[in-house]
Amino acid sequence: MKVIGMLLNFIGVVIKGTVILAICSSILFVAYKGNQPMDVPQAPKGMTYFEFMSDRIDAAKTVKPSQCGWGMILSLAALGPIYSAVYTEVGIHPDGFIARGTASDPDIPKGVAGAEWYEVPGIWWNTVERLSWTMLGKPATYGCKFRPVQTFDLIEIQ
């Protein structure tokens, strides 16, 4: 009986350690990628994702009515993780079950079919950037009209 208890305790410790490692590595990945220049072609050269989101939050403060701007940011926060995961899956498995039920969208990654497991986080991050740009960065002809994305001047430290 004591051996079974020790085995179950060991399994619990391994699972707990794995979960903590997965959470910490995910946070580090997002922190690293968020400070790299965005891969979206329309984004200002050298702008990071965190700079982009900071600019969009500032832009949301100036949109009238204010609920419109904040609504867009909250919808990105609520739907972005779901859409980015679904679009990444559809891009990697274009003939899969989820792909058959997903409408065509320019934010779905192209040319990544059959990607290896270690390529998935990068594909997912690029999808997050494209979705964020589509929702908050593209000029809108109707609905919420955010101001254009402002470029940040890079300061050289000598």
Task: Describe this entry's structure for a reader.
This protein is mainly alpha-helical. It has a domain at 35-137. The protein contains five helices and no strands. The protein has helices at 2-34, 49-62, 66-92, 97-100, 120-137. α2 (49-62) runs antiparallel to α3 (66-92), α2 (49-62) runs parallel beside α5 (120-137) and α3 runs antiparallel to α5 (120-137). The mean pLDDT is 91.
Rg over CA atoms, rounded to whole Å, is 20 Å
Name the poorly predicted regions: none
Portion in beta strands? under 5%
Structure summary, number of beta strands: 0
Apparent shape: globular
The number of helical runs is: 5
What are the key terms here?
5 helices, mainly alpha, about 160 residues
Quick overview:
By secondary structure, the chain is mainly α.
Topology:
Layout: H1 2-34, H2 49-62, H3 66-92, H4 97-100, H5 120-137
